[in-house]
Amino acid sequence: MNISITLLLFLLPVLFLLSWRRRCSSRKLPPGSLGIPIIGQSLDLLRAMRTNTGEEWLQERVRKYGPISKLSLFGKPTVFIHGQAANKLVFSGDSSKIANKQTASIRAILGDRNLLELSGQDHKRVRDSLVSFLRPESLKQYVGKMDEEVRKHIELHWRGKEKVAALPLMKNLTFNIICSLLFGMEERAEKEKFLQNFQEMIEGMWSIPIKLPFTRYSRSLRASSRVQDLLKELVQEKKVKLEQRTATPQQDLITCLLSKRDEENKRVVTDKEILHNIMLVMVAGHDTSSVLMTFMLRLLSKNPAVYKAVLQEQEEIAESKTSGEPLTWEDLAMMKYTWRVAMETLRMVPPVFAGFRVALKDIDYGEYLIPKGWQIFWASSMTHMDENIFPEPSKFDPARFENQTSVPPYTFVAFGGGPRICPGHEFARIETLVAIHYLVTQYSWELCSDDHYIRDPVPVPTQGLLLRIVPKKEK
């Protein structure tokens, strides 16, 4: 009896060790190399993006290593995954296993309490607060204000010009819309001060986090600090106005977030979370919408039949309005073809090239292990340009989105997907449709620069997409 017990106690650790080794041997790391410490493949990826060969760079990895591979990006060991299943894991994976986590450079510049960094109940709490302002029911009342901003922009920056650089102008427009509608900031000088620091801040978001005076990363950190100081002043002003009851909760996004209270009358969103999420909204709204509008102008100039169909739809809406009458929510609902053009533009030129998550636990994915603590890297173009999902992917064809239920889930991810769909997608839709309406009904244009663009990290066309513009006669 004693011998049996002794033998059993001796064998148990041996059996456990053998079982553990067998289990580990079946959970191998994906193929690939982590490269040089800290730098890894970061410079190669950034170089590929800035020569607009990022998709080819990733495709080469797929050809070499298969659907999953390991590498090192921005100082962290990383697993690259792609395809419909990968997108589903990224956007609707088990929150106990996978969480939002951006690169060290993005986290340092935007702050660690923004929506891209939060998970679980914190993510839901802050997201719900943002969505309460950005949902369609709330945004309906701001269509007239967007209309006013677009008209003012065209009067200032387009009227009387022979040539314009589209991307800088679209960035100017979206930044002014964000400042006016989301932050309640009307003074032009105040906006210009923000814009100068903001543009310097975003330049280093995709950079190797080496803090030396001459690096992009360091310049962006300094600009981020200045932006945060300006925003802190703005938030304090909103607090005072709320206390004095000279502001209403739905007046702008900052006031809305400050007004959110739980059942015990405690603030739902902290000052730090408000600050960091304002910065996130600034970056997301400024870059994505401006890139979408710019590349819509580019693709419309290259596709006369699509341009003609958009023009016809927009002229019918314009003819139903009296002179100077602003667009309404109902007008936007009629712009179905124009929004399909926008969706196809986003498919072909997604403003967000790729994104990151973090594994909170060991994850079995296919035949491989994604270790706890590693970054997960995904790229939207991998499904957007997959010919098995979108036939002839290089062809610009808005008809792909006539019946959106025919698009397989988690394959078109310009706005994310599932529970992690971008809370600002409706805001982007409204400002894009309003801007395109006035541009297409008031001007015709042709490209003056070549058709190339780079990613830095968003798409940037040569010369900012230089256009020769001709005003249309007012009817």
TrEMBL record:
Binding site for heme: C422
Pfam families: p450
An example Gene Ontology molecular-function term: monooxygenase activity
Membrane topology listed for this record: Single-pass membrane protein
GO CC terms of this entry: membrane
Entry cofactors: heme
Keywords in alphabetical order: Heme, Iron, Membrane, Metal-binding, Monooxygenase, Oxidoreductase, Signal, Transmembrane, Transmembrane helix
Main location: membrane
Annotated family: Belongs to the cytochrome P450 family.
Name of this protein: Cytochrome P450
Native species: Eucalyptus grandis (Flooded gum)
